[in-house]
């Protein structure tokens, strides 16, 4: 089935916001999403390389900001 990969990337980034956490090493999120989508988010500069043994992935500053923005856009109960 053909699908809009940019829309899937947006929704995945928005959902990463749900599982984001920040610590002394930066902002990270659990990476239990489709590998092709995670690779595209990496290519766009929103996350670090998801191909590691770690169960989470680091988000860039832009990736964390956009994840929050997209989450509010798609899932806010305010409107």
Describe the structure.
- With 79 residues, this protein is α+β, with helices and mostly antiparallel strands.
- The protein has a single domain, classed as Arc Repressor Mutant, subunit A.
- It is built from three helices and three strands.
- The protein has helices spanning 5-16, 35-43, 61-75; strands at 20-23, 26-30, 56-59.
- It has a three-stranded antiparallel sheet with strand order 1-2-3.
- 20% of the residues are buried.
- The model has no long low-confidence stretch (mean pLDDT 94).
Supply the key terms.
79 residues, alpha+beta, Arc Repressor Mutant, subunit A, 3-stranded antiparallel sheet, 3 helices, 3 strands
Tell me briefly what this model is.
The chain is α+β, with helices and mostly antiparallel strands and 79 residues long. It has helices spanning 5-16, 35-43, 61-75, and strands at residues 20-23, 26-30, 56-59.
Summarize the topology:
Layout: H1 5-16, E1 20-23, E2 26-30, H2 35-43, E3 56-59, H3 61-75
Helix pairs in contact: 1-2, 1-3
> Which second-level CATH architecture applies?
Orthogonal Bundle
How many structural domains are formed by the residues?
A: 1
Tally the helices: 3
The CATH class designation is: Mainly Alpha
Counted beta strands:
3
The helix fraction, in percent, is 40-55%
Reported by name, the CATH topology is Arc Repressor Mutant, subunit A
Provide the residue-averaged pLDDT. Answer: 94
Q: Tell me what portion of residues adopts beta-strand conformation.
A: 15-25%
Widest sheet, order of strands: 1-2-3
Q: Low-confidence stretches at least 5 residues in length (pLDDT < 50)?
A: none
